[in-house]
Amino acid sequence: MNPQDLQKALGWRVSDEDFFDIPFISDMKVTAGWGELGNQNVDRLQYLSRISRGQRYSFGYDGSNNVIGANQSSFANQNITWETVRMSNIGIALGFLDNRLTSNFNYFIKNTDNMLLSPPAIGAQGNNPSPYLNVGKVRNQGLEIELNWQSTKNEFTYSVGANAAFINNKVVKLVDGTFLANRLYGRPNQELTRTYVDNPIGTFYGWKTDGLFQTQADIDNHATQPGAVPGDVRFVDLNKDNVIDDQDRTILGSPNPKMTYGVNANMSYKGFDVTMFFLGVAGVDIYNADRMQGLDASYPFNLYSDITKRWTGPGTSNEIPRVSTLRTNLNHRTSDMFIESGDFLRMKNFTIGYTLPASVIDKAGLSRLRFYVTAQNLFTITGYSGLDPELGITDGNTQQNVDFAQFPQARTFLIGVNIGF
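RESULT FIELD:
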């Protein structure tokens, strides 16, 4: 653990002061904090090259001479140092109507210096991963809001809460080079994301598209695009040099949501109780890499059903290119054709239960008997075409919301009983 880890915090309950006299506010507290932490979630001994024993080597023209030896299993970074996270925040908590309505507002800035990442490995490394490097500085700043309401009327008690986070992620500095690359994918073997200064980590990177070429005249009147024929994707000449090439790539979208939010509710009446929890994100992009492969006929597996809507002649489609096992135009290269909105609202949990009254269970020598039914991931409202919009991080933390056909979160139903003696 970093020996320099430290934290400071203070709070002031303003509503306890003699001068405070706002009738509709029952509680007010102002808080502030500052902290500095190291990152211990990194493999040990990064400053050493490690050797693994028990590796099998084969010699001879037919490989029949087997020898047990050792090999280098990791590379050293003798210049590695602590990743340091410095976070400061200021907030205010308010209570209204005798604290039946409460709220919390918190603004924070989180700076990560000497950020530790394991860059993509090059072929000369073999199967060994790259050592962790101190690659730069990242800043996360944003606002978190929480509102809660609770009330009781006769035997009916309920509470409703909502929270939202608005976070801006930005790379402030890179130690070496102009960008961080990461995982290559697809038949063209191209990167899906890049990390640039003044942009979020892992922004989607590639070509912009402008529909499909319908006729040869469309191709002749467009910038030079080697290998293009009618039915192929028309890529945008961003740098206006009249040639479609790598220099026309650009940032296509962000995997970071503009807002993450949740809603929860709890209700009880006599012996019945209900709890609900919803999770959602808004303003986020997903790169559907599985669809990129699912529309490419050069792969030896089933295609997406969308392939039935492909281009078969002028005017038949302006979205899904012609089918071909030849990749002369690289129609399925990294582009905005495979970027979709990842907004969703999901019911993460729903539980309904019933607790038998004491007058019934006392005879059985029990102190509590409750039956319940729980559903997890009950439904999802989304426009995303893939299996699951709730994807997460891959390739360290430099690639987020890329759909490689990860197994979707299961919808689960549970029936249970709580027994107390």
